[in-house]
Amino acid sequence: MVDDFEALDRRPLYARVADGILKMVSDQGLRPGDELPSEADLCSRADVSRVVVRGALAHLAGAGHIMISNGRKAQVKEINPDVLTNTFSHGLATSQFSVSKVLEVRQGIETSTAALAAENRTEAQADQLISLCDQMEREVGAPQAFADLDYRFHLAIAEATGNPLYVYIVKPLREIIKHSITVGRLAQSSDADQTRILRDHRAIQSAIFRGDSKAAAEAMQAHFSAAGLALSHHQQDQNNDP
């Protein structure tokens, strides 16, 4: 009996109705831009008041699932990577995870993206990576510009995979990726470190250009391994400072 009570859904009614609307979207095969039924129709289907339905729609709009416009029915919305941006930035700002943890996640994801990009990239995308490396080389002495170009380089690789899910993963990480790049540069500030960072990017770009997925994955893996090791040493040095 206790287990039965523990299984009860105690969430607000509007949240449960929102789940029902999402299920309806899935069951009916609705796509971005398609309209949902009217508020009156949703009230009838869910057997709830208009206030509850409006709360459910507002909840779904806040989560980025639908778009609400005055005088129009709600519409299914395209996936918006920005919905996760504030969550990730807040997590980093409040020390719920560290830059080293960001690097661990990025290493796992971006090793795969490099390999897929080598297999699926277009000529234009390969040229874009070359251009970004050239720009990064010119901005070695400008940390913020370099960090932005570094992020764009990794985003371009995600786009070159041909799999939009990788783009949806990388885009929300923009600010924490740029932050991890900046921190990584502080941990690798010597001329030799900067030369290696640029060499790493050139190796990744070259492997993708050649269509060598194995070499691209290995180059990306080596890039993150070196960054992680440098960051670890940097943190140890800071902890040892009096």
UniProtKB/TrEMBL annotation:
Gene Ontology molecular functions: DNA binding; DNA-binding transcription factor activity
Pfam family, one: FCD
PROSITE patterns (alphabetical): HTH_GNTR (PS50949)
Sequence ranges assigned to domain HTH gntR-type in this UniProt record: 11-79
The UniProt record lists the keyword Transcription regulation: yes
Domain of life, source organism: Bacteria
Alphabetically ordered keywords of this record: DNA-binding, Transcription, Transcription regulation
Protein name: Transcriptional regulator, GntR family
Originating species: Shimia haliotis
